[in-house]
Design brief:
Helices cover 73% and strands 1% of the residues. By secondary structure, it is mainly alpha-helical. β1 and β2 form a beta hairpin.
Amino acid sequence: MLKISDLKSAILLKGLALLALILFPLLVRNTSSVYLIRAAGTVGLYILLALGLNFTLGCAGLFDLGYIAFYALGAYTAAIGSIHGFSFWFNLVAAVAVSVSVRLLVGISILRLRGDYLAIVTMGFGEITRLTFNNLDFLTNGPKGLPRVGESIQAVQIFGYDLGRDPSNMGYYYLILIAICVAAVLSKRLEDSRWGRAWVAIREDEIAAELSGLPVAKLKLLAFTISSVFAGAAGAIFAHWERFVTPESFVFWESILIVAMIVLGGMGSIPGAILGAVLLAGSPQLLQASSDFFSRILGAGFINYRYLIFGLIMVFVVTFRPQGLLPSKRRRTELEELRVQS
């Protein structure tokens, strides 16, 4: 049972972490490290995607390798809407609606599959989506991306303030931070709900869950569909922030990266999904930034080995922490019981 003192400590820790995130861009804005604000914003988009996929893979146990397709749908919907003069907020709603609608239709068609078969089909859908965007020249401008010459994707405006005016990207940083807070609260509420407990039951033993009276098909479809809300919203923010979208931003390896974030952080764990996204999306940024320093010490060849070092760290963690770095309590208990039995 959680003690009151532990609860207060957890709330205090979260409050201090949030305060640090709020102050961070203000502290580095006028320094040579201003680029870290943009890097942190990029990591924030991956956190949104990881929180979304956590419903599908972490909670319900559905192996989805095509999740990046719904990020692309959100981005292209927002880009096309902006080119035609619609505001960011309208495009945000439209991006989420399109992602959810397509996700629902795909889910109805493929969620009878399980395991590797589901993974293969979702991987195929992700590639089909990218190739479709690559070939629909009349709508997406094909591999050249949007916007076309003479068109533009507008920056986000909040109460008349244009976030694109600030070269430090601080406005987008705060927008993404707010989106992450909303997504984390929503994820926590759903995790503690009847749906969340039912998803975990399905993940552990789908047949037993069905025999217990749970509507397995509907619950799997619900988790599959909810995850697209996060992907669509992240895609809309990405399109208005970058003000350029191309099919090459949504390749298959992006889906693999998001799956790795969930596995590394801890399947079904909200803090784990966030930590996994920070490590996998943020480490390359830090390694790139530190390349000059280490190159002076270890030689110019270091830059060629930074991804090897990154990969070795991942292998080490997965080998010695199979439950993830910050596993959920249920997942940690399950793995401890299996280790005792073996």
